[in-house]
Amino acid sequence: MRGAKILVESLKRAEVKYIFGVQGGAAMPIFDDLYDAEGLKLIPMRHEQGAAHAADGYARATGKVGVTLATSGPGATNLVTGIATAHMDSIPMVAITGQVPTYLMGNDAFQECDILGITRPICKHSYLIKSSDEVADVVAEAFHVAATGKPGPVVIDFAKDAQIQESAFYYPESVNIRSYNPTVVGHPGQIKKAMDLINRAEKPMIYAGGGVTLANAHEELRHFTSKTGIPITVTLMGLGAFPETDPLAMRMPGMHGSCCANYAFSDADLVIAIGARFDDRVTGNLERFSQKSKKIHIDIDPSSIGKNVTVDIPIVGDAKNILRDMNKLAQPAQIEPWMQQIREWQKKYPFEYRQNGDRVMPQYVIEQVYDLFPDAVVTADVGQHQMWAAQYFKYTEHRQWLNSGGLGTMGFSLPATIGAQLGRPDKTLVNINGDGSFIMNIQELVPAVTMKLPLKIFIINNMYLGMVRQWQEMFFQKRYSAVDYHDNPDFAKLAEGFGATGIRVERPEEVRPALEQAQKIEDGPVVIDFIVDEEENVFPMVPSGAGLDEVIRGLA
Amino acid sequence: MAIQKSDSHILSVLVNNRFGVLARVAGLFSGRNFNIDSLSVAETDDPEVSHMTIVTHGEAQIIEQIEKQLNRLIDVIKVRDLTAEHHVERELALVKVDCDTSERAEILQIVDIFRAKTVDVTPTNLTIEVTGDEGKIRALLDMLHPYGIKQIVKTGKIAIIRGEIRTRNG
Ligand SMILES: Cc1ncc(C[n+]2csc(CCOP(=O)(O)OP(=O)(O)O)c2C)c(N)n1
Ligand SMILES: [Mg+2]
């Protein structure tokens, strides 16, 4: 069997259903063997970045490893942003690139590029295949590494001569890497100590992040909160890990988080961090961050613990296992005065906005989307619309919210929605996009139309790179350098040109009927261009460098 | 010559002897803004495993991060900070000194005292090989300075735990 075919057979053994790619010279044998592969579907995308994000979206929506394929040189470099995006959010992914033949490597051959060198700092691990008899072992190892421990992207660079070299095919039954043994079970002594601290705390809070989702620990987390009654804030990366509709939910923390969550950090005497990494967008000024609290930090990655804040009780391991062990010792917390305070903050400081004349308010659009599509899987791009989508939609389900939190990659969401829809055909996929972000990977409307995917693509069109404009308004004397997007094309017409349904909404009373119309379209994507209030800002806001208690609640 | 920093640490790192490992380790230090003062690598008695001795410096919290980040690399088998443990450390230097016949005897005496070795002689210079810890090498160089040092080539530091029976590669 030739190397390319061994790759395809190995991918099948790794239970890959979809592979998102773009053709090219150094990968032609692989594409050739995918052409009539059974049980494994090749999804041709229009740009390698789109292919990588689609694989990433598939992984986020399903928890399985996403797979992307590109040719050498420019194909491989186009994957880079997608790989980095997955890396920052610990998304399991395998990225396969064709490489020039081994006898040309190092010669600056046509379309040669050291993609392993380029991607080394932005992937979990990488492999070079120079011979067809390495293929099956490398694939098995790559999937194991991508999916276990703290997940992440793995790059496989596959030389073209090895793709056509013949070898026997044996897929390894199991993988054992002597130098790679992630800790999954939490230390019982540490868990006991943590529970003692929790039971003694007067003002405890849970701070849960994307790690809960990655570990599929959502049920154990719910169990823990319902047993203890401790209030919880879930980060942008973790949304969906805990129902935002629950009375214990303080909503998202951090820069654009709720005042309740941020004030709670400042007042708490105990912070229980679960799969969260004290990111600077959450903590604000570290010197002022949660000074009065002890910290318990549960994480699969020892290097996340103690990196930004000093931790009193570290517990290394898989959040699901650890929460299960903690639940055995959990008891109702006696924290009524603290809960009174939390309830007061929740009541006093909900996410809120003011209607501006007869403009379509972006927050109103999200509220209406939530009202009509409460069970949808929502993808968001990057910018103000992302924050509004996090604030005004209440996520209640595991893996219901997908966004590029760590790298903040504009252009992520449209291709990610395609991958997510393929992974979750049972779900409605809603994509909240920005006018700046949408156009960054707009070409991926083509495969969405071709596959007749019923994506609901909603553009919050403020004719600006809104998030940057907000910073310019607040910190750069309104000098709107390079953010004015009034030259945007007509997105509804553009969508029609792509073969999707396009709708333009300019007035508040058109919002709901347009969404209802979108709800009924099942044979392909629909794009609604919501022309919204241009200079609306996202609040609350903790300016960068400020402490969480210095939050700006809104402009007077 | 660099003077050993007070917050200096010697890390003993076992890695898979595979393509790209050195680049991964070096890249980790540069990418995360950690310091490398010296690094030496060689195969162990097991050809699939290499040993690195890395000398770095930084506050305790930084060193802890370095160890954790190294452990995150898939190809790293084991990391051990030898600094606080009872260990032997050595480096080797080759030193070329200006030396005419009138000075030769004097220099050879110094070489002798330091239990160094002469590895090459010409009418105008002498090449000396010395092994030892950093202090000893510095002391020798101080002694040789007045004669005129032409060139120094040094290895990085290598280190090993004293006594203690270890498993192979461990
Ligand atoms: C690829 C990329 N380039 C630049 C940025 C910086 N950036 C962050 S938010 C933003 C504005 C996004 O504009 P838009 O998609 O219209 O969203 P809005 O903020 O207006 O809702 C920019 C340029 C980024 N995050 N990603
Ligand atoms: Mg915009």
Report on this structure.
With 556 residues, chain A is of the alpha/beta class. Chain A contains 22 helices and 17 strands. In chain A, strand 9, helix 12 and strand 10 form a beta-alpha-beta unit. In chain A, helix 1 crosses helix 2 and helix 10 runs parallel beside helix 13. The longest helix of chain A has 15 residues. Chain A starts with a helix and ends in a 25-residue tail after the last strand. Chain B is an alpha+beta fold and 170 residues long. Chain B folds into 2 domains: 77 residues, 2-Layer Sandwich (Alpha-Beta Plaits); 71 residues, 2-Layer Sandwich (Alpha-Beta Plaits), CATH 3.30.70. Helices cover 28% and strands 38% of the residues of chain B. Chain B contains 4 helices and 9 strands. The two termini of chain B are 32 Å apart. The model of chain B has no long low-confidence stretch (mean pLDDT 92). At the A-B interface, strand 5 of A face helix 1 and helix 2 of B. Bound molecules: thiamine diphosphate and magnesium ion. Magnesium ion binds next to helix 18 of chain A.
